[in-house]
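TL;DR need structure tokens for one chain.
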Amino acid sequence: MGAHKAWFLLDLVIFYLVVKHAHKQTDLPLLKRYWTLICIFLAASSAVLYGTFVQQGLDVGSTIQSAYICQMPISFLYIPLLLRQKSLVGWSVWAGWARTLGTGLIGVFAFMRYPDHPFLLAMAVVSTLVDFIYMYLLYARKRELAQARTGLRLIRRCIFLHRKVRIDSEGEIMGRIVIAGYKPKAGMQEELRVLMREHRSTLRSQDLVAARESIMMEAKDGTIIEVFEWKSREAIEAAHSNPVVLRMWERYATVCDYIPVAQVEEAGQLFSEFTPLTFLKFGVITNQGGVDA
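>> reply
TL;DR here they are.
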């Protein structure tokens, strides 16, 4: 009798939690609106049905048969409820095992105490099997969501490594492509080429430019035009206080002047043509095919 009272008190706690929280598991506005009234109606109806079931003598002495009648729909309903979840936050594996093992142990008790009640024993077997199926699906669903999260992280990582650019809140790529003109001072053409060979690698070593390769070309007057990509506006600002970059710019100031590209004669043409520059380990190739050391 004491066990029945304890069980009843536990059921009261469960009923209170269902009334307070279970409406969050449905997306039907009508159920949400009348959730408390529906719970009260179902509780009252269940009390009448189970009371008359026991009064008519259809239950066994321990009332385990009526308990299984209540348990079976719960076991079945857990499965579609699980499969509808987009997230399993709050879905405890330990709680699931506790419920499954509890159902199984009560089934063992039923076989030992009521071996001549086939309906009761059938409910015990079916409920236990359904609970184990639920646990299998719970583990499978957790693995599926974990793989999805891992896959999403890998995709994001690959995109980051491939593009190596940042995007602001409005979706704008924050890398900044610039076109710079370097006009060599008198007799400083080769010295400028030496500096241009090291320009991007120096900025790259300070993590200021993007992975995109720069394009260099030479105008007829010897001005070198470079197209390259800073990582961001912040990188441009950081360069003006970077000691490595400042030392490099001091060297540039001795061999060339920075000029707007519009001052180059070719820039005034509809289709501007320049001599491409490709730097090798020991020199530079122009489109004339020569190599200057």
